[in-house]
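Protocol step 4 of 6: structure prediction from sequence.
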Amino acid sequence: MSAILIFLAVLAVIISWWMAQQRLMSKPWLEVGHQGDRPQREGSSIPTAKIGLGVFLAVVGALFALLISAYFMRMGLNDWWAVPIPGSLWFNTGVLVASSIALEWTKAKAQNGNLEAVKAGLGLSFVTAVAFLSGQIFAWRQLAAAGYVLADNPANSFFYLITGMHGLHILGGLVALLRTSLKVFDGAPIKTIRLGVELCAMYWHFMLLVWLILFALFAGWANDFVEICRQLLT
């Protein structure tokens, strides 16, 4: 519980700092100036869409932090049997890394105005993301065939819940990626889709980071780190 409170406190500080940088807490009616003057904004000029996505990702991060904390608290009981990691998860991880790299490359090409490269990058990102989701379903089927069904063990339930939640967020990102791709293939000017590509890349990098943490969690690599944190908090 202490770890959750610390995480939420840090999250609140980051959001407050970001809002201050965007002057979202300013009081323009108290600013002095002549009519018609346009005040010069200081600080970052990040678009509102990026701010909204950043706040959304902060909420998503808090959700996964709560799930991970519940996972660690539950795994300490006697009825917990760890789920073996299917070999396909390694392939899925590599595919998601490739999808994130492709979107970062696409973002760079969008900044340079290379429309054809943007089309190729978006297509590759979409295909690899679909491959990731398909691989996750295949991993589920492997576990179910081996007898690791949803209600058999609390560890099974957590595995399906957390990976399913992550998959739903990837599916939501695919919808946004598809909308951006359709705009590009419909002939929209490159300058009008740059922000959409940047938002997709930002979302994809975050979901990749979440998945890497989850993969380390299920593989057992995070146990030592959590034990150190527990000793520091107690």
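Step 5 (inspection) to follow. The chain has seven helices and no strands.
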